[in-house]
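Subject: Sanity check before I submit

Could someone independently write out the C-alpha cells for this chain? I want to compare against mine line by line before I put it in a report. The sequence has 244 residues.
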Amino acid sequence: MTVNTPLSELDQLVFAASRHAGTPEGDALVAAARALRASVPDARSPVLRITAAPGIPLDDLVTEFRALNPQIEVEFTVSRAGVRALRGGRADVSAVWLPQHLRGLGSAPLGSSHPVVALAPSDPLASLDRIELAALGEHHLLQNPDTVPEWRELARELRGQTIGQRKSLELGLLATVGLQLDHVAAGNGIVILPRPVAEAEQRNDVVLVPVEGLGEHTSALIWADERVPRPEVADFTRLAAGLR
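---
Independent answer below. Compare away.
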C-alpha cells in the first residue's frame, strides 16, 4: 500500500501543475507549486537532475559540481528533450542547443560550435575542406528546413514546381540524428548540424565538412525561472558561468 506523505503530495502537486506550463497563468501556477514545495523541510538529501543534449560537453562540469557538493545527489542524463523535461518536472537544469522556445525559463549561454554538413562519401563535395552554403542548394535536406533557415532560402527543392515534391515526403519523418545519417550514408540527402552533435554519433560511413555562410550553433543552460531558485540549481548555474 502506498502511503502519501505531505512531501509526496506536494511533489504530486508540482507534477500536476507542470502540465499547465507554457502560458503566463500556467507558469505562475508552476512557480507557486514549486515555492510551496521548497518551503517544506525535507530530511532527504537534495537531488539535482541535469540533462544535456548530445554533443554538449557537460561531463566535466557535472564532475566538478559533484566534487564540490558531495551532499547533493546528482542525476545526469543525455537527452534531446531538455526543454520538455524541464517543463514537465523531470529535470532541474538542462543544456540545450538553440533555438528553443524558452519563454518562462531562465537561461545562460554555454558555448558555440561551427556547423558541418554530413555527406555521403561518394558525394563530389565530400573531398572539400570547406563548403559554401550556396553549393548545397541543389542537395536534399533530410531535416526540417526551418532548423536551417539560411539553406531554406536558397534551396532549389523549395521553389516553384518542386514545392511539395521533396524526398522527405517519401522517407517520412526522420526523428533522430542516427536515422538521418543512415539516409546520408545511403546517398538520400544531407544534414547540417553542430559538429559535436554529428561527431557524437561516431559514424565512419559519412563525411563531415565545415559549412561557410552559416552562423555558429549556440548552446545554453536553462532552468525554471523562479524568483528564488533552489540552492543547488543556483549553485550549478553559477559554476557553469565560472562563478564560485
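---
OP: Matches mine. For the report I'm noting this point. The mean pLDDT is 84.
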